[in-house]
Design goal:
- By secondary structure, the protein is an alpha/beta fold.
- It has a single domain, classed as 3-Layer(aba) Sandwich (Rossmann fold).
- The chain is built from 6 helices and 10 strands.
- The strands form 2 sheets. The chain has a 6-stranded mixed beta sheet, with helices on both faces. It has a 4-stranded antiparallel beta sheet with strand order 2-1-4-5, covered by helices on one side.
- The mean pLDDT is 89.
Length: 224
Amino acid sequence: MAAIIEGTGLTKHFGTGDATVVAVDAVDIRIEAGELLMLMGDSGCGKTTLISLLGCILTPDAGELHIDGEPIHSDVRDLSVIRREKIGFVFQLFHLLPYLTALENVMVAMDLARTKTGEAENRAIALLTQVGLSDRLHHRPAQLSGGEKQRVSFARALANRPKIIFADEPTANLDSRQSDNLMNLIQELRQEHQTTIAIVTHHEGLKENADRVIEMKDGRILAT
């Protein structure tokens, strides 16, 4: 199976001098196209930093990264294009724009990619319908439940048809029923859109949903 992401020796430090923290420590990682991966470990182990490196939000201090077979360099313009065209993100705190409706929050991702307005609206409606929010298109985030906000986040992440979606603790703010519903939705979205999904979580109960589990501790990968 082809790798959608491959990192070698990825390293990231924060701070200077005696206060330096090695958040990611010479990590080698390969994510296969189409798989559902769980990245697990205690808080502070480096999970979020690692996906920020893999998702081109942060640049590594050392190591090499390839996405979809292409080497990734630190040029800011190149990284912004890669994030826009190949990567989707779902954040723990949703990061929806409060003054926009659910429909507009999904469309804004396509606006950045210069998708024509009519096409963007049609695609956003289709995605929100697929995640079960056809009756919430014109609701703002304050009018949505936590589970509904997370569904909008996934619709937005899929808007530009990414190769991979990174989801950082997507069930952290959901109750058990909402978490189960979201994991079912993630499986459906992966199959429908043929998208690789990598989920950061510390919830052991989610393991059964994964094709593969990667454990982290102190910035290093322990087992796969």
